[in-house]
Amino acid sequence: MRIFKLLVAIGLIGATVLAITAARTIPASDKKESVVVPESKPSASNGKAIYDEHCLKCHGETGSGEGEDAKKFKNEMKDFNDQTFMRKESPAEFFDKVKKGDKPMPAFKDDLTDQEMWDVVFYIWTFQNKDDLLAQGRQSYDEKCSKCHGASGDGKGPEAGDLEEEPSDFTDLKQMLSNTSNDMFEAITDGEKDEGMPAFKKKLSKGERWNVINHIWTFVYED
Ligand code: HEC
Ligand code: HEC
Q1: C or N: which end of the chain has fewer Cβ atoms within 10 Å?
Q2: Shortest-distance ligand to the CA of residue 55
Q3: Per residue in 51-75, pLDDT tens?
Q4: Whole-prediction pTM
Q5: In b/e form, how buried is each residue of 1-32, taking b as 16+ CB within 10 angstroms?
Q6: Which residues, judged by CB distance below 6 Å to any ligand atom, belong to the binding site of ligand 1?
Q7: Whether the Cβ atoms of residue 219 and residue 152 lie closer than 8 Å to each other
Q8: Backbone angles phi, psi at 94, to 5 degrees
Q9: Which stretches within the chain are classed as H helix?
Q10: Domains, the chain
Q11: For residue 44, how far is its CA from the centre of ligand 2 (angstroms)?
């Protein structure tokens, strides 16, 4: 009997260790079988119409969770203007939430198509944009990044051919949908020298790095 209990205990510990390692090694977005890469670029303006109809009543006009129907669970609401929150999320994680829901957030898989869910996710993404800062990001990008990553973000800039690795293609939806602003910030700050990506820690201020990231996201969706 004792041995049996011991075996059960060892089994439980083993399972826990396995679960913890799995959670650490598999990026959250890769586990989500619900995520379907859209056929065409998501449209933020189409997303706004969907947002106004289905989401505004809880998430509110400004996206900070001030909608009428959200009063009951005010403390649980997320603020889409909160950059610390937004920068650690990927569009794929948002898509998964919208599709499957997460109580009290309702599931939309029966009400919206995959394309419509991407559209609304990218409308939410635009809450991070401030027009003048986005213009600044574009300027830094054109001056410092486009020669490798291409003016349209496709990774085919004039200097791309001279590098060990191909510069990332920011129009590649499959790659970008599970990317996060925080991950990009790290790559831009420290560079990936062996691959040919320079570090911009000293060449762009922190603010300029965040603005350039918001510009990079505009390669993924349409207005
Ligand atoms: C009945 C109110 C309600 C409606 C309607 C609603 N939401 Fe939510 N939503 C919530 C609540 C509450 C949360 C916070 C709980 C959570 O994060 O899981 C949330 C969280 C989210 C999140 C953040 C998920 C995360 O990573 O934490 C996203 C994205 C989101 N909603 C998108 C939408 C979209 C898009 C729509 C419309 C298609 C919508 N919601 C409609 C209540 C609602
Ligand atoms: C000299 C060429 C070059 C320049 C200039 C350059 N990059 Fe890169 N960048 C690369 C290469 C090559 C990679 C691919 C590295 C790899 O494969 O791991 C890369 C990778 C990246 C990544 C990581 C990939 C990802 O999807 O997260 C980001 C983000 C990035 N670059 C942003 C920028 C930004 C922003 C600028 C301008 C401020 C810039 N790069 C300028 C060559 C360049």
Answers
A1: N
A2: 1
A3: 999 999 999 999 999 999 999 988 8
A4: 0.89
A5: eeeeeeeeeeeeeeeeeeeeeeeeeeeebeeb
A6: 54-55, 57-59, 69-70, 73, 76-78, 89, 93-94, 97-98, 102, 104-106, 108, 120, 124
A7: yes
A8: -65, -45
A9: 2-25, 44-54, 56-59, 83-87, 91-100, 114-125, 131-144, 146-149, 173-177, 181-190, 206-217
A10: 42-89+107-127 (no CATH), 131-217 (1.10.760.10)
A11: 25
Q: What is the CA radius of gyration of the chain?
A: 21
Ligand positioned closest to the Cα atom of 140: 2
- Please say whether the beta carbons of 111 and 206 come within 8 A: no
CA distance 123 to 111: 18
Q: What's the CA-to-centroid distance between 142 and ligand 2, angstroms? A: 13
88: which 2 tokens?
């650690």
pLDDT digits (tens, 9 = 90+) for 17-39: 444 444 333 454 455 678 899 98
Q: What is the pLDDT of residues 99-155, one digit of tens each?
A: 999 999 999 999 999 999 999 999 999 999 999 999 999 999 999 999 999 999 999
Which of 59, 73, 127 is the best mutation target for the ligand 1 pocket, counting ligand atoms within 8 Å of the beta carbon and taking the most?
59
Distance 168 CA to ligand 2 centre (A): 6
